Amino acid sequence: MLMPGLRVLGVALAFLTLVGAQPDKSVRLIEASDDSWVVTNLADEKDSERIRETVLGTQDFTRAWYAWNVVGSEQVFAVGLVRFDLSSVKDQSIASSHLQLYASRTSLKPQPRLVDVYLVEGTWSESAVTYNSRPPWGVNPIATTAVYGPNTWYSWDVTSAVAATAKRDGYVSFAYSLRDVDAQSEEQILFAARELGANGPRLIVTYDTPPGLPVDVILGGVAGALLLVIVAFLLGRYLARHSRHAPPASPPAPDPVTGRADAVEARRPLAPSIQGLFRLTSAPTTSGERATTTANASCVAVETLLKRCSAAKRGTAATRNGTVRAASLSRGANPRAATITNGNA
After folding, report:
1. How far apart (Å, rounded) are the C-alpha atoms in residues 133 and 55?
2. Domain 25-208 part of CATH 1.10.10
3. For the chain, which end, N or C, has fewer CB atoms within 10 Å of the first or last residue's CB respectively?
4. Is residue 57 within 8 Å of 131, Cβ to Cβ?
5. What is the CB-side half-sphere exposure of residue 244 using CA atoms within 13 A?
């Protein structure tokens, strides 16, 4: 009985192993650690308004903006910045990553407008970054998304950039701006800054979790399998113990009259056995009475058996005589029958 229990334990452990071996995906939402925006007037080389030295990281929005030849010859251009701490996914196998920004206000002429995202190299902080101290970013965008209007989340796929910088730097930074600039036009998109809380910039990172089940699930499964083994073992010992004490069933003896076993079974309730005759007698009180009762019971039993044997013999003899007469008649052995046949009365 122990082997079935061990098989149950093996099946349970195999199931836990197969389930635990299946890879799973985990998703982590990372809020921005810094965000800001920087602005310059490309037509004002001397920066007479000092906008290139303005720190804008304390505002509750970031800005992708341009104003081209709207007022005189000015060429104002603004770029948004955002930074994320990747320490929580630094050692993970990143499957996908998306930058999400919430557009709180838009002023666009032809809709939609394309917004490009660039990977930023180097460090910066929202409390100090300006256009003049801005970190460098790439020439080519790593992701592009069309913006249609306000009060909507927009997403950029930045998986390759996050996977490359997570292990190397432990953080990632992006710059974003409008792609197209029309002459004598002004357009802008205001994205909610991290100061607004729930609508601030965020990074959605999906990564592969290591194969395996939580420790508590594995321990619970092993404990349950061991319990099944113990129950099966104890049940097997109980059944084996009771099967040893049970007397083997013996076939019924043939009936002394007919020689058929089923006849004994049919008449058994009507004729008490020898042991039953002993039980029907009253309990003796002395040794002499006990011996007398035993002898009487034995005599009754023997007498009953002799009567059955005599009846059987008489029945057998009668049957044999009847058979002989029938045979004689069939052969014409009766003299009277022969006389009638010859015509003599």
Report:
1. 10
2. no
3. C
4. no
5. 5
Q: Which helix (H) or strand (E) holds 317?
A: helix 287-330
Please tell me the total number of residues recorded for the chain in this structure: 345
Cβ proximity of 144 and 117 under 8 Å: yes
Whole-angstrom Cα distance, residue 118 to residue 147? Answer: 16
Q: Where are the domains of the chain?
A: 1-22+211-241, 25-208, 261-330
Cross-strand pairs, 176: 80, 117
Cα(216)–Cα(283) distance, integer angstroms: 69
According to DSSP, the β-strands at 202-209 and 24-41 are antiparallel
Local confidence band at 233 (pLDDT 50, 70, 90 cut-offs): confident
Residue 173 host element (H or E): strand 171-178
pTM for this prediction: 0.58
User: In 3D, which of 122, 107, 108 has the Cα closest to residue 174?
Assistant: 122
Can you say whether the dihedral through the CA atoms of 260, 261, 262, 264 is positive or negative? positive
pLDDT band at 228 (very low <50, low <70, confident <90, very high): confident
